[in-house]
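User: I need a structural model of Glucosamine-6-phosphate deaminase from Klenkia marina for a docking pre-check later this week. Nothing fancy, just the predicted structure tokens so I can convert them on my end. Input:
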Amino acid sequence: MEVVVLPTPEDCGRVVADVVTAAVEAAPGGVTIGLATGSSPLLAYRGLVARHEAGLRFDHVTAVLLDEYVGLPAGHPESYREVIRRELTDAVGIDPARVHGPDGSAPDPLQAARHYEALVTSLRPVAVQVLGIGANGHVGFNEPGSSLASRTRVKTLTEQTRADNARFFDGDVAAVPRHVLTQGLGTIGEAEHLVLVATGAAKAAAVAGAAEGPVTTSCPGSVLQLHPHVTLVVDEAAAGQLERADYARYVLAHKLAEQGW
Ligand code: F6R
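Assistant: Understood. Predicted structure tokens for Glucosamine-6-phosphate deaminase:
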């Protein structure tokens, strides 16, 4: 795992945008990228929109989302499909038919989960998967206790996650769905390159658990330690509990150009 500690959230967004840009440019014949929603990747997505406006093309890109709320009607402004459309995919010109997410409005969510797992499998390889992390260490919506080998399925959000996400629902926790469809940790781990971005002190414990803690279902992000290609991009505040932050800064300062991301 490469831990990249940068001064500001803007710097983090730039590196995540660089990673996605490299994948998009490397495969002009077609590439699948995995997208997270939430606040953490927004600066990266804004950077990608700016690059698109400067000429970067996305018409060969297929996008797969990590997760979706169960029970929000299709088109609900806080459904993750809508959020990603608004924040990124429309603005960079990815055909909506090539933007895929679990169907949280399906009458049978269990069937929707199986269907999405099969769809993601059919769209592999996922060249880059953008990730955020919850304050409790969740990745996707794999809450603590999730199997490290899990596949796409229905999960129940913790009350902490619902409270954290109430900000997207006018502060109304009751409006945050209890259930979600999420790619499993095993599903996510099949992407070729995982790039996780976390900013702010509220993420510091989760980041330390993911990067340096034991590999444990208590911190689902710790499963990233088993993946061969992970870039963990954090600002100074989110790096605040990393024991090896100084080494990470040293590595970055002496990185060989050939090493890339
Ligand atoms: C969202 C997702 C979640 C978020 C996490 C952090 O698609 O999979 O794991 O990345 O909840 O959310 P923010 O970035 O809003 O703090």
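Before docking, keep this in mind: The chain has one domain: 2-255.
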